[in-house]
Write a structure and sequence with these properties.
The protein has 72 residues and is mainly α. Helices cover 29% and strands 0% of the residues.
């Protein structure tokens, strides 16, 4: 089995990221940033688990993916 969550993140040093510790960012905002960074936002392409149809439920044209929802 191959795991892909977080595989696109490069770490120079394994430590807690500054945005998670920042006093300027509320804990809810830090959670959202973490979900975006680790591809855990609830879209079909992030959680395929046998799902074949991954079209965007809103535009019915593009893929239901993080890239699509943040760029379209």
């Amino acid at each position: 089995m191959e795991y892909s969550k977080g595989s696109n993140i490069g770490y120079g040093k394994f430590m807690m990221r500054s945005y998670l510790k920042s006093k300027k960012i509320h804990s809810n905002q830090a959670r959202i940033l973490f979900k975006i960074r680790t591809r855990m936002i609830k879209v079909k392409n992030n959680f395929r688990n046998g799902v074949i149809e991954t079209k965007c439920p809103i535009c019915k044209d593009g893929e239901d993916s993080q890239e699509h929802i943040f760029t379209e």
